[in-house]
Amino acid sequence: MNSYIVPVEWKDTYVRLLDQTALPERETYLEIRTAEEMWDAIKRLCVRGAPAIGIAAAYGVCIEMKRYMDRTEKEYRAALEKTIRYLGTSRPTAVNLFWALEKMKQVSEACEGKRNADVCAALLAEARSIEKREERACIAIGENLLTLLQGKKTILTHCNAGGIATVRYGTALSPILLGKERGIDFKVYADETRPLLQGARLTAWELQKAGVDVTVITDNMAGMLMAQGKIDTVIVGCDRVAANGDAANKIGTYSVAVLARYHGIPFYVAGPLSTIDRRTPTGREIPIEERAPGEVVNGFGRRTVPEGVNVYNPAFDVTPHELITAFVTERGIVERPDEEGIAALFAGREAE
Ligand SMILES: CSC[C@@H](O)[C@@H](O)C(=O)COP(=O)(O)O
Predict the structure, then answer these.
(1) Where, in this chain's numbering, is substrate bound (predicted)?
(2) Is 114 exposed, middle or buried (0-12, 13-18, 19+ CB in 10 A)?
(3) Which residues of the chain have pLDDT under 70?
(4) Residues 84 and 173 placed together within one structural domain of the fold
(5) What is the ipTM, given to two decimal places?
(6) Is 0.90 surpassed by the pTM of this model?
């Protein structure tokens, strides 16, 4: 089994976070001791990727609430509600954040009248269970994707949907990492992923560490590689999937989906059920995070746009479900996803 990096880890007196902003130069870890520090780490993308954000926020609630242990029950409860609301303002698009915080809220409600120490223990148990659940989901997603990849050799991916964005195997990268353990070797092209280079910095780092054959290309090269027949399949992760199957993911994903359709290449979106937002009917209603212009004009130390020029920096785009060959979850594969296909995934059961 490959050794793997743990992006979010509960350490009793702090939450240990892999600082993904420092990669690939340095593998360093942050010690998070308050909700404010967790909020900042999520906002700055020290911890990133939809499932990892949800897990980090859940542990963020736990670490903050340890500080209120000696307060009155009323004060404790007020602080808990405030912390849950506050962490939900860190980033708007990845629905896993809200899904995880909703679960923490449910635990808090179920614990009415209990001692602070018991509420703390229940919150921690829930955060751990969210982490475990996402880990199991990643493995099942990988297994499901492997069934679609028989006879395929080269995979293009966009952004980073690996272990450091989730737990252990990742979503889009799960079949590649699982495959590696079983002696199945894929060749991966990683889109650089402007403006913050999650593909070049993170996917390349993670796959290289796992011994996977990975080649970085700039985002604008994908079309040419497809035309040359170098890409068998595209697999990407997702941040929020609407009830009709439209999927928000890192900016640039939509362009890759259009290119894949033109070239007749399967385009798979991989994600756990915690990334499906059945309350959002279509992709049009998905809130898209807009980030600071500095990420575009001065991303890595050098100004690349003249002073005074307008910059638009949406962090995500939406791929319409019509362009998705299949949506791959832990509960199965939805071919040509639409409202019916997404609803069938739940069939009376919500994401537990
Ligand atoms: C399994 S992670 C899936 C997505 O969260 C990922 O593809 C992505 O878009 C991450 O964006 P980021 O802004 O780096 O958090």
Answers:
(1) 48-50, 91, 198, 249-250
(2) middle
(3) 1-3, 348-352
(4) no
(5) 0.99
(6) yes
